[in-house]
């Protein structure tokens, strides 16, 4: 039995029932195909924005920064799982076509300002706050159409990282990041 589920209202009851488990992959593939059909012209994308100062001033290694971005990206998908765009983005037939843009801002002030703009604009996102230090390290958007998200990121630049050893007086990143 093939069900064409293109709306959130139709998809959620199916996913909530144990009988629907067998049909989940099929329903998700069909939803993904419907939403990803627009991908050629306006792809689903997830933006991840890192703080440049964590590397340059605090001496965080690239791996710690990648971990922070990964935390934020997974949290954004998990927190917005019920949206059709999010489901389509991670559907089995779309998983190899994911598009992410990893950008950077100068520091905490700029990251908080960007988070505020996203909030005001209604763009679903997660501001990742590292614990137990309790400071924001990055943010990630929930998957959405590029045309919807791109205007928020015009002042950000693509991230480019360099060797931390070249930075004098660098501190270590918190353990377990």
Automatic annotation (TrEMBL):
Keyword annotations of the record: Hydrolase, Signal
Reactions this protein catalyses: an N-acyl-L-alpha-aminoacyl-tRNA + H2O = an N-acyl-L-amino acid + a tRNA + H(+)
Record EC number: 3.1.1.29
Signal sequence interval, chain numbering: 1-22
Domain of life: Eukaryota
Pfam short name (any one): PTH2
Iron among keywords: no
Gene Ontology molecular function, alphabetical: peptidyl-tRNA hydrolase activity
Top-level class of the enzyme under EC nomenclature: hydrolase
Keyword Signal part of the UniProt annotation: yes
Protein name (database record): peptidyl-tRNA hydrolase
Native source organism of the sequence: Pelagomonas calceolata
